[in-house]
User: What shape does this take?
Amino acid sequence: MENNRALSPEVKSLFESVKGQVKEYNNSFEILTREMKNLERQRVSVVDAMALLTTRVEEKIQNLQEIHDSAIKELDETTEKAENLRGELLEVQRVRIQLQEQSESITKYILELQGAINEFRYKSDKELAQTIAMIEQKVEDELEKESQKIEVRLSMKVKQLETKVQTNEQRLMHLNENTKKDFRVMSNEVEGVKSDSSRLSQITDELNNAILLQNDELETSFSQRYKQLERHILTVIDKVEEIESSGGGGGGGGKPKDDFDDWGESDIGSVSSIADKLKGLGGGGGSTTKSLASSGDNSALAKDVKSIAQKLDKLIAESETIVEKATFTEKKGNLALYIAGGSLVGMIILFIIILSK
Amino acid sequence: MKQKFNEQQINRLLQTVGPKTHFEDFAEDGHLLEYLNEFLFERYTNEEPFRLEMFEILQRHTKVPIPEIEEYYLKFLSSTLNFFLESTAKWKTIEP
Assistant: This one.
């Protein structure tokens, strides 16, 4: 600019002065920009703080809003409750007024009713006293009549019962006597049975002894007869052998009938005696008792046994009849006791009824 | 280290190194303004870059003050100061 010859010095001085002012302005602008930067930093910090404050304030506002809402809600609820209570209070007041009115009307009605009741009570007491007096009179009359009737009936019934009791007592006496007689008869019969049984035991002992003796005799006689029979059989066998040896040599093929025809009378008699002995041993009675009973020595014993058996049968039959009688008398005694007990209970019941009346 | 040049320096270098134009010859002789008003008046008046280029040549080669250049610079200074005043007008209204 200084070497520029196209401009006049005045213009150049002007530009120089403007240049100086520009420098001053530039300095001032630099200061301003610095201050602006400081202010900007401060503004940023303030904005941050403001944002922080805004968030805090928003949170606080939200909390306050929640508290406010809850408080409003509680307030609404309390208001509603208060409204309800107010309504109930009004209702109570209304009911109280109604109750007062009704109590006043009831007191009036009670006063009127009391007057009416007093009047009615006076009249009713009067009429009731009259009717009670009449009823008492009637009841006393009826009671006297009924008591007289009942006394008559009771006296009759008591007489009837006394007669029944007497008859029952007599029956009981008879029954006791009969039972005592029956017991006596039964005791006699039992004593007879006892004596018979002792006799029977003696007879059985004697019979046993006799049977033992007879048995011994039979054994001895049987052994003797057996020996005799054995001897006879041996003699018969010897005779048969003799007959066979005498007749058997020439006519060995002959018939036995023809041989028996040749027997003599002594041979036939000996064989028949052997047969009779064999029959006496094996047949006839079949048992020793029958043979004893059929033999002439044992007839008295058999008779005794039969008589004892017959007595035993009689005793058994009598004991059965005694037992039947005893059971019958026991039944009769029980029946008499039942009748006496029933009559006593009936009398007690009648007395109780009479006493209660 | 490479040296960086701005556009103005590059233009000066080109001017010193480049060939000499007839506009510079007229400017050295003091007849450039006459030549422009006589032959290139429309271009000189309408085309701003061309006029500025001519002003550059005139400033480099003239030996007397040129009122047109002074007017141009004063107008530019006036407009700049007006812009400055308009920009700083609101600051003046702010009270401390």
